Amino acid sequence: MLIKIGELATRTGATVETIRYYEKERLLPKPARSQGNYRLYNEAHFERLQFILHCRTLDMTLDEVRTLLQYRDKPDENCGEVNVLLDEHIDAVETRMEELIQLKQHLLALRQKCASEALAESCGILHALADNSCHR
């Protein structure tokens, strides 16, 4: 079964641009070409793209995806590095969650600077943003 890039995009939910980008980044192997020079993808492309997209929904970087694909392509190798990669990714997510909690606190403090509608010139939020007092 060979399909064109538009159908691959439809089947996976990716955009055509995303598929081309993953090819350029060498995450997806180059597809065959039709006589009309259309890209033709097979089931292996479909499965690999689904794997990549799933990793991306988990907010993995392209380098992380690349590493995971290397192990996926060599099923007889030890997957210890995969475990390390995932542990590091979990740590990064936890750090980002802490940063987002701090960001929320700053935004809530900023929101308290203006409790009602007023003229923009007297808006406490705008004044706080101008003098950076929401971070003090």
TrEMBL record:
<feature type="domain" description="HTH merR-type">
    <location>
        <begin position="2"/>
        <end position="71"/>
    </location>
</feature>
<keyword id="KW-0238">DNA-binding</keyword>
<keyword id="KW-0805">Transcription regulation</keyword>
<dbReference type="InterPro" id="IPR009061">
    <property type="entry name" value="DNA-bd_dom_put_sf"/>
</dbReference>
<dbReference type="InterPro" id="IPR047057">
    <property type="entry name" value="MerR_fam"/>
</dbReference>
<protein>
    <submittedName>
        <fullName>Cd(II)/Pb(II)-responsive transcriptional regulator</fullName>
    </submittedName>
</protein>
<dbReference type="Pfam" id="PF00376">
    <property type="entry name" value="MerR"/>
</dbReference>
<dbReference type="InterPro" id="IPR015358">
    <property type="entry name" value="Tscrpt_reg_MerR_DNA-bd"/>
</dbReference>
<dbReference type="InterPro" id="IPR011791">
    <property type="entry name" value="CadR-PbrR"/>
</dbReference>
<dbReference type="InterPro" id="IPR000551">
    <property type="entry name" value="MerR-type_HTH_dom"/>
</dbReference>
<dbReference type="Pfam" id="PF09278">
    <property type="entry name" value="MerR-DNA-bind"/>
</dbReference>
<keyword id="KW-0804">Transcription</keyword>
